[in-house]
Known about the structure:
Elements: E1 15-17, E2 19-20, E3 23-24, E4 31-33, H1 40-53, H2 58-64, H3 71-85, H4 103-122
Helix pairs in contact: 1-2, 2-3
Pfam families: Myb_DNA-binding (PF00249)
Keywords: Nucleus, Transcription, Transcription regulation
GO molecular function: DNA binding
Amino acid sequence: MGESSQDTQANSGDQVDVEDEGRALVGRASQRNVTIRWTREEHAAYLKGLERFGTGHWSSISKLYVPSRTPAQVASHHQKFAIRSNLLPAEKQKPSILDITTPAVQKLLAAEREKEIQLQMAQ
C-alpha cells in the first residue's frame, strides 16, 4: 500500500480518483483532472477520422477512430492542431505531435482558413 495521497492511476479517460490513506474520497473533491497526452497512434487515428469526416464531426471521429477520447477531447485536440498548423517553423519552439499531418488534412485546414478569412472580410 505504499501509495501517498498524491499517487494516481490513469483510467481510460482524463479523470482519476485520488485515494487518501487507503480511503476513497467521495464527491467532486475526489477527482482531479489529469492530462494524459495524446499518443502518436491516437493522433494518426484522429488524422484519418478528420480526412474521412472533416471538421465538426467530433463524435464520429471519437467513436470510430479514437475511442479512447471523448468528442470534447477530439475537438480540443483539433483546435490546438489547427493553431499549431498556422505557425511558421521559426515560431515553433520544440517539436510536437501536432506537427504530424497529411496532405489531405493540410488541404482541409487551408480551406478552413480561407473560409475564416472570407467571413472576416464580409463583416
